């Protein structure tokens, strides 16, 4: 009787630990580079669960431009990457299932200058109707003394 009880207990413990060992989360990982392929270290990564409309994680990339976001509940996500001097990049429609390891890599574009330079000037008035010349400088006249 005791042996049967001990075996039942051991079986229950094994099954219980198996149930608790089941992972019900997922991971998003990736890298952030610039257009030339160089790693962007210190880029801000924001992970949003779009099912609940909440920010779940904020982190920065490593010196090699990589990031890992483990233990995310299953669901739908969007991930953004941002770094000084670069445009923010956003990846949407990421669906995570149990035990997923989803790679989301970013290639950041340099943030262009948004300054607009506008040059305006009055057009030069040219008299096309008259054939008279006014203000001509003769070959013997010093142009520095003309008024």
Molecular structure report:
By secondary structure, the protein is mostly beta strands. The protein has a domain at 23-108: Immunoglobulins (Immunoglobulin-like), CATH 2.60.40.10. The protein is built from one helix and eight strands. The protein has one helix at residues 2-21, and strands at residues 25-34, 44-49, 54-60, 66-73, 75-82, 89-96, 101-103, 106-108. Strands 1, 4, 7 and 8 form a four-stranded mixed beta sheet that branches. Strands 3-2-5-6 form a four-stranded antiparallel beta sheet, with no helix packed on it. Strand 2 (44-49) and strand 3 form a beta hairpin. The longest helix has 20 residues, at 2-21. The termini are far apart. The mean pLDDT is 82.
Here the CATH topology of the domain at 23-108 equals Immunoglobulin-like
Count of individual helical segments:
1
How are helices and strands ordered from N to C?
HEEEEEEEE
Determine the mean pLDDT: 82
Mind telling me the CATH class of the domain at 23-108?
Mainly Beta
Would you tell me the structural class of the helices and strands?
mainly beta
Q: Give the biggest beta sheet.
A: 4 strands, mixed
Q: Termini, distance in Å? A: 126 Å
What is the beta-strand fraction? 35-45%
> Could you name the CATH homologous superfamily of the domain at 23-108?
Immunoglobulins
